[in-house]
Amino acid sequence: MVTELQHPLDPLSVEEFRSVAAIVRKARGSDDTNNFIFSSVALYEPPKKQVLAYLHALTTANSSVVDPPDREALVILIDRPSGLVHEIIVSLTKSSIVKWEKLKGMQPTQHPDEMLEAEQMMIKDERIIEECRQLGVTDMSMVKIDPWAVGFYHADKDVAKQDKRRIMQGLMYCRTSEDDNQYAHPLDFTAIYDVNAQEVIDLIRHVPRNSKFERASVPMANHHFLPEHLGQDKMRKDIKPIQITQPEGVSFTLRGHTLDWQKWNMHIGFNYREGVVISNVTYKDVGDQVRPVLYRVSLSEMVVPYANPYEPHTHKMAFDVGEYGLGNMSNSLELGCDCVGDITYMDGVITDLKGEPTVIENAICIHEEDAGLLFKHTDYRSGKAHSVRSRRLVVSNIITAANYDYGLYFYFYQDGTFQYEVKATGELNTHILAEDEDPAPYGTIVAPQVVGQHHQHLFMMRIDPMVDGIDNSVMQVDVVPSTDPVGHPDNRVGNAFVPVTRIYNTTDEAQVRSNADSSRFWQIINESKLHPYTKKPVGFKLVSNNTPPMLPKPGAIVTERAKFATKTVWVTPYEEHQLFPGGSYCSQSEPGMGLPEWTKESASVRDKDIVVWLTFGLNHIPRVEDFPIMPVETCGFHLKPCNFFLGNPGIDIPPSKKQTASAANNSNGCHC
Length: 672
Hints:
Blueprint: H1 14-28, E1 36-43, H2 48-59, E2 72-79, E3 85-91, E4 96-103, H3 112-122, H4 126-134, E5 143-149, E6 167-174, E7 186-194, E8 199-205, H5 227-230, E9 252-255, E10 258-261, E11 264-271, E12 275-285, E13 289-305, E14 317-318, H6 320-324, E15 344-351, E16 357-378, E17 385-401, E18 404-413, E19 418-426, E20 430-432, E21 443-447, E22 450-453, E23 455-465, E24 473-481, E25 497-503, E26 511-512, E27 521-530, E28 537-543, H7 557-561, E29 569-573, H8 595-598, E30 610-620, E31 630-642, E32 670-671
Parallel strand pairs: 17-32
Antiparallel strand pairs: 1-2, 2-3, 3-4, 5-6, 6-7, 7-8, 9-10, 10-11, 11-12, 12-13, 13-14, 13-23, 15-16, 16-17, 17-18, 18-19, 19-31, 20-22, 21-22, 23-30, 24-25, 24-27, 26-29, 27-28, 28-31, 29-30
């Protein structure tokens, strides 16, 4: 029987990271990491049916007749300087290599150490030094470079001839001091860098438009936001402390990576690419009936298309999950700053370029927080009121993608609701402006000669549902006026409106956009489980108020690479290891990878083991108030039980206080 730390979906431990690297080095016959690097190491998740069979055996005391799934790791190596990519599956159970495949023309995620290495190399390049000198920047210690993956690069200017070298672009800035805000001082050129050859291969300038200047001067005015630079005399003095306490401790229990909170049970995982992964989510109904809700849910990709159509900005189309990895960019969280209350932390583990484990301490924050009212009613006849406050469980991590920071929050509520929320903050990606240049219509002047570029943040959630079982369907719901005219016997006064439903049968049908006019939402249903009252399938309602369309045109490079973001919802049959909608290797990717490839042939998605893919996000037209640091903007979605329970599942939550008081005169009785 596995121990609490050996759940089949547990992320690799520090010891397992070391064992995997040792097995690969031995098979490779070399420890010389000057010739190759470990791009990534992560758990290679066992098949869903094996995991569920094993977990079921544990709960029914039959674990002795079901072997645990093999413990495997997926390793990505990159040769230097050739750039050849190796995809390796290592069995920790058997201490051997299961698969070793060489991939041509594929680019894995950019490792954080590669990016730091790239900045150090670019800063020494003579052409970059000369460009800076021409701008009046002679102290290269002031120059800072943000290495980004390149959306595309074509040395001969033929977009169809994508350069398949491993390439980064270096966005150039200055700092006037060690912790100055570099995005207040953008430079006017971008470097194109070959990662494997470790050399700069091109420089691309911003050319001022409709300007008398041939080249923009560097804005050197400081725009600080750190308190030590603002000065204590400028800080607010009228803020009183808020204390958040739980004198009897938290209401959840964490056993290894398995978490119990009231009626919820789930497994919390972590990897270099998706960051936090929540699996095997169940809710305990009346009579202690454990009802499955989700097999696996994670943020599987995102794309940030920028609107400026002129060089060098056309290369900016960030895929932060696939190009960098949310786990790779995770912060170590701090009590009182990132998380408030009675906090439980979990570490995350990734690999360095040599295959050694790197521990990100406190990468995941788990806590409870008050979420306002759950329900309330006042009986106006008796004056008696009953109120129950909502509490939610929060599982979160925060990542920093160069200038931007994203808070990523999984919320679980007492009424069976699941919510995911992104809090976007950090600093705008800025570019330079000549003194007489107007950035409209593609940007906003946020400070003299500093432009915040218009862009989108489009996130895709991979939702692997398990609503009362493994076979589910997806139903579209549109709320529309009745088709019967005013005066019709079924619509005499014209007030009728109805929900119109449609269950998707195939992958062709299940590629759809949101529709604000009909308040479109979706239900993930189990057609084999009918609710005793409604006589219709039990389900969960999927709804988001943040579903902007992808704005770059069809045929645009970013649109073709991020085809997944052109639809709000896709539904596909479950396939092992189809995890990333932009493709497993989306850096410098060709069009059509991922979801478009998987849905070329129509397939049944009704009453099947399915995956639901949801796009949500923000259109970000920067404001001056977003500079020098951006207040949080939020987006996300909810999964709410819809004819799943026999009533409000939170009705058994006791009121916060036992005493009663009248809502009207504090005498007749109120539960609150």
